[in-house]
Amino acid sequence: MYNNLFYEVKDSISTITINRPKTYNSLSTETKLELTDAFEAANHDENVKAIIITGSGKKAFCSGQDLSESKEVNQETADAWVDEFDKLYRVIRSIEKPIIASINGFATGSGLQLALLADIRIAAQSAKFGMTEINVGLPCIIGSTMFWEVMGKSKTIDLILTGRLLQAEEAKEYELVTRVVADDALKEATGQLAAELAAKPPVGVALNKRWFKRMSDSDFNSCMQYASEAHTLAYESGEPQQAMTLFFEKRAARKG
Question: Which InterPro entries does the annotation name (predicted)?
Answer without folding.
Answer: ClpP/crotonase-like_dom_sf, Enoyl-CoA_hydra/iso
